[in-house]
Amino acid sequence: MLIQSAVLCLAMNIYHEARGEPVKGQIAVGTVTMNRANWDVKEICPVVYAPKQFSWTSLQKHPYRYPPREDRSWQRAKTLAQRIVGGELKDVTKGATYFHAHSVKPAWRHTFERTVVIGNHVFYASR
């Protein structure tokens, strides 16, 4: 049950943060989440739902509803999450624990080292 819940939390994060990105970008968002959780399955859901960490969990509307079952992006996010948790997909971000879309310029970006740009996202790790 723990692994199933962790996979769903990770899939929700991938879906809401990167569903329009190439697969590599979706994997990158998933591995950032895992890096924050120190690749500990028990920590995935707390990382995803920590206050003000991901844009979709900070929305005013209740963000916790699952996407429609037939949504292809949701199906892909679940598959990728399962493969990441299962250890089949490795970190493509060079240890990143933060990211943002190109369209925003968060003040914290200067605090970290930029590791990679994938799709519409810029990834960062601690210096």
Structure write-up:
With 127 residues, the protein is α+β, with helices and mostly antiparallel strands. It has one domain. The chain has 4 helices and 3 strands, in the order ααααβββ. The protein has helices spanning 2-18, 23-36, 44-48, 72-85, and strands at residues 98-101, 113-118, 121-125. A hairpin with a 2-residue loop joins strand 2 and strand 3 (121-125).
Provide the structure class: alpha+beta
Q: Tell me roughly what share of residues is in helical segments.
A: 25-40%
Shape: globular
How many strands in all? 3
Give, in order, the helices and strands: HHHHEEE
- Strands of the largest sheet, in order across it? 1-3-2
- Low-confidence stretches at least 5 residues in length (pLDDT < 50)? none
For the largest beta-sheet, the strand count, sense and barrel status come to: 3 strands, antiparallel
- Nearest-integer average pLDDT: 92
- The tally of helices reads 4
Tell me the count of domains. Answer: 1
Radius of gyration: 14 Å
Task: Classify the beta-strand content into a percent band.
Answer: 5-15%
Spatial gap, N to C terminus? 36 Å
Protein name: Cell wall hydrolase
InterPro entries: Cell_wall_hydrolase_SleB, SleB_dom1
GO molecular function, one term: hydrolase activity
Keywords: Hydrolase
Question: What does this entry show, briefly?
Answer:
With 127 residues, this protein is an alpha+beta fold. 39% of the residues lie in helices and 12% in strands. It is globular.
